[in-house]
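Re: [ENG-882] Designed sequences occasionally contain unexpected residues at chain ends

Forwarding the minimal case from QA. Structure tokens:
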């Protein structure tokens, strides 16, 4: 997710969910080719398995970007066919590609030919007032024919006119049944469902119908849900928020030593105590203190202490 799931966020999410597959923010193929690769593509070794999400609609450029991603050590390249923003539409990529299955097929085929890692697609059900399951399934089939190894379905339309990107994640109705049907009719195709999944129960219920679930906003705002889901799926013992947080310490300290400001990491930790007694205190201490010069791990310890104190008072 753009501006959210940067490398620091992903290191944290990896600690919470050792078995999850993590995705980068979308990076346009042109940026991969011409931009600052260390900044755009750099990641920590702990993040594997990790997918780079690409934006674009030029087969040759996407193939080149996919090759760069593979050389950087990514485990998967994912093509974005779901982003509805104006900027993306002007550049003819993202969700508007749902109407161009042939072009996307050429992009996927070019990427598949360029790399040995899986090439996957993230899409919507359609755009604007499309309500044609056959067109959606045809879009997916074209990408599978081109070599796509898996599809992530954000199970709602993108409305390209009149809605903001935020509204486009909320207003068009969710239709999980289309993803279920896609899977039922194509048992060999790995289908991952995305959209509106916020609890372990909701996520696990989908796994009766599809192969996987992708959590977006819930993973960011309430990241402990990733840990709960991991434990529910694998039977691994549940670890406390504090214990998981402590595991971030070596990474945080090495980043501080390399000159990073604490706030760039702690902004991704704010939701750890979401809905918990003391959670507000945790957020407050971190968000008020992390931008101060010299802020270091001691601030995180202080936030934990305040959280404990508040929770005790509330008990
Ligand atoms: C801030 C933000 C940035 C996002 N950026 C991307 C992106 O770069 N690529 C993408 O495929 N989806 C992006 N999304 C959409 C999410 O991946 C996801 O499809 C959507 O939020 C629905 O899933 P959820 O209900 O689990 O959040 C973004 C969502 C948010 C909130």
């Amino acid at each position: 997710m753009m501006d959210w799931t940067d490398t620091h966020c992903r290191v944290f999410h990896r600690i919470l969910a050792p078995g999850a597959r993590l995705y980068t923010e979308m990076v346009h193929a042109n940026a991969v080719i011409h931009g600052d690769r260390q900044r755009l593509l750099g990641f920590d070794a702990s993040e594997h398995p990790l997918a780079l999400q690409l934006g674009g609609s030029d087969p040759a450029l996407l193939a080149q970007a996919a090759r760069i991603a593979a050389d950087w050590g990514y485990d998967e390249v994912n093509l974005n066919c779901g982003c509805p923003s104006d900027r993306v539409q002007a550049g003819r990529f993202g969700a508007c590609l749902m109407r161009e299955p042939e072009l996307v097929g050429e992009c996927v085929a070019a990427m598949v030919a360029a790399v040995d890692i899986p090439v996957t697609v993230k899409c919507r059900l359609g755009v604007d007032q499309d309500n044609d399951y056959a067109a959606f399934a045809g879009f997916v089939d074209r990408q599978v024919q081109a070599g796509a190894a898996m599809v992530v379905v954000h199970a709602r339309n993108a409305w390209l006119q009149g809605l903001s990107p935020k509204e486009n994640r909320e207003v068009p109705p969710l239709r999980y049944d289309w993803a279920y049907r896609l899977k039922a009719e194509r048992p060999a195709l790995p289908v991952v469902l995305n959209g509106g999944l916020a609890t372990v129960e909701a996520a696990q219920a989908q796994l009766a119908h599809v192969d996987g679930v992708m959590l977006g906003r819930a993973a960011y705002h309430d990241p402990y849900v990733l840990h709960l889901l991991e434990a529910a799926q694998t039977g691994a013992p549940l670890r406390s928020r504090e214990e998981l947080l402590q595991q971030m310490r070596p990474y945080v300290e090495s980043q501080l030593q390399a000159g990073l400001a604490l706030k760039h990491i702690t902004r991704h930790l704010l939701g750890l105590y979401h809905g918990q007694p003391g959670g507000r205190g945790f957020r407050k201490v971190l968000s008020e203190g992390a931008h101060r010069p010299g802020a270091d791990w001691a601030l995180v310890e202080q936030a934990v202490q305040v959280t404990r104190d508040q929770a005790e008072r509330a008990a």
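QA comment: On inspection the terminal residues look reasonable. The domain at 7-234 is CATH 3.20.20.70 (TIM Barrel). Proposing we downgrade this to a documentation issue.
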